[in-house]
Amino acid sequence: MSIARSIDPAQVGFDPARLARIDEHFARYVDDGRLPGWQVVVTRRGEVAHCSTYGLRDREAGAPVQADTLWRIYSMTKPITSLAAMVLWEEGRFELTDEIGRWLPEFADMRVYSKGSTLKPYTVPAIEPIRVWHLLTHTAGLTYGFMQTSVVDGLYRAAGYDLYPPADVDLAEACRVFGELPLLFQPGTAWGYSVATDVLGRLIEVVSGQSLDSFLTERILRPLGMEDTRWYVDGADGARLAALYAADPATGRAVRYDALGAMAYEKPTLLSGGGGLISSAADYHRFTQVLLRGGELDGVRLLAPRTVRFMTRNHLPGGQDLGTLSTGGFAETTLDGIGFGLGFAVVDDPIPSRVPSSVGEYYWGGVASTAFWIDPAEQLTAMFFTQLMPSSSWPIRPQLRQLVYSALVD
């Protein structure tokens, strides 16, 4: 499935000449070697106002980015998994305040890191159990091994969980290991980017009685017509998948990264609700539109409007921002003025970041520099796709916001 512009941008408040600045700006990223290629989609009031591609999806093969190119979306999987969990919540299958140990006993009696080293950590009992809302907000105390910022991260790596899990480990086994490792902080007291959404995916499996891939396909992807979204590519679709690149630390140029990129061609043993999906711009556009429209698209309702509004408010304790509560390390967002909802970063105050946005805007991104945001106040969505790791290599996201909002002139 591909995507194309559906309306004259001026009809929805955009200056076409100013929108063209997006392409001019990011073309320079390709021309000087920082990116191999990219795809941008900007919509307003449900209409595609700007849709463009530039550069190559596979630089070595000379294959251009096309409207139907497939992209590894990594952590842009998280909002999809979060929405899936809220589908079950709307059915009354759990409450957000429920202890996850009710379904996942490996998390029933957690301990929290206090001091010591990876060889000899000292832990204390968790005062508060991990609850469902902790998973959705990354306040559970879990972490990622690739963070490289704490002793607990080191314990994850020692157990084999870095950027990817050990070979032949499934989601149930990964969660068993996570339950044996200490938490980074007491649940509900801080914010730490983590495997929480992978654990949420396992919770979906146990509560629904289905594998995560089956549940997502049956309840989210197929109803929305997201035909290109999948866990791996094979057959003829393999040629549509963009190659993965990494930024050379010395030159800043994009260098092919097949050691990791090749994994997208293999059926995964572990279904990662936190980072496992591949998608297209057309598919992710449909996902953003169902959220912008309050849970309904083309006659298919996944969530009630009040649920979407509830998910996209700041759920951090005391209404604090990530700048106050974050434990540091990698995250797909700036921190000051940014809250966190049930699966999304949420803008509480755009001023501290010095980047234009609206209060109530929500968003996320992926480690290969993909990103999206949804602005209910302006009825606007934007998506950027490329394949460059890590996402902190270049300030693509704030620059895209500058360019999009300065093109909005109504």
Automatic annotation (TrEMBL):
As given in the record, the signal peptide range reads none
What name does this protein carry? Answer: Class A beta-lactamase-related serine hydrolase
Q: Does the keyword Zinc-finger apply?
A: no
Q: Which organism is it from?
A: Micromonospora zingiberis
InterPro entries under this entry?
Answer: Beta-lactam-related, Beta-lactam/transpept-like, Diverse_Enzym_Activities
- List where this protein forms a coiled coil: none
Q: Which Pfam families match?
A: Beta-lactamase
What are the transmembrane regions? Answer: none
Q: Where is the Beta-lactamase-related domain?
A: 22-403
Q: Which UniProt keywords apply?
A: Hydrolase
- GO terms assigned for molecular function: hydrolase activity
Q: Which Gene3D superfamilies match?
A: DD-peptidase/beta-lactamase superfamily
